[in-house]
């Protein structure tokens, strides 16, 4: 498994040093994302309220999209409508190993009978 490093601002970061409100990286999961409309919501890992995200906040080269269930790291900014994701970085989806049960007598998985 590869470790993912999430950039962290110093605890003393001030609005003047960051250009906007002080930001803190969080982890979460994409609840849903409508590619046609270019927005969706992220569910924070800490259990907070869902965070609105626009396609322009997705920090990836090329086509910017998110997939429901995808883990992400993100920062938020305050808007007049509430918190909004400002920088969203998709994280690798953990490997999921699928194991098939052992074949039993009389199943099609046994192969041809001699």
From TrEMBL:
State the InterPro entries in the record.
Answer: CSD, CSP_DNA-bd, NA-bd_OB-fold
Q: Which parts of the sequence belong to the CSD domain? A: 25-90
Q: Which GO terms describe its molecular function?
A: nucleic acid binding
SUPFAM superfamilies attached to this UniProt entry? Nucleic acid-binding proteins (SSF50249)
Where are the residues of the annotated region Disordered? 78-114
Q: Name the source's superkingdom.
A: Bacteria
Name of the protein described by the UniProt record: CSD domain-containing protein
């Amino acid at each position: 498994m590869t470790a993912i490093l999430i950039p962290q601002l110093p605890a003393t970061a001030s609005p003047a040093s960051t250009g906007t409100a002080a930001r803190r990286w969080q982890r979460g999961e994409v609840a849903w994302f409508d590619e046609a409309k270019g927005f969706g919501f992220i569910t924070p890992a800490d259990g907070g309220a869902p965070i609105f995200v626009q396609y322009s906040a997705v920090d990836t080269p090329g086509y910017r999209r998110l997939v429901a269930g995808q883990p992400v790291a993100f920062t938020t900014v305050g808007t007049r409508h509430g918190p909004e994701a400002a920088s969203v970085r998709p994280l690798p989806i953990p490997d999921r190993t699928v194991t098939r049960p052992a074949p039993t007598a009389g199943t099609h998985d046994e192969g041809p009978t001699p």
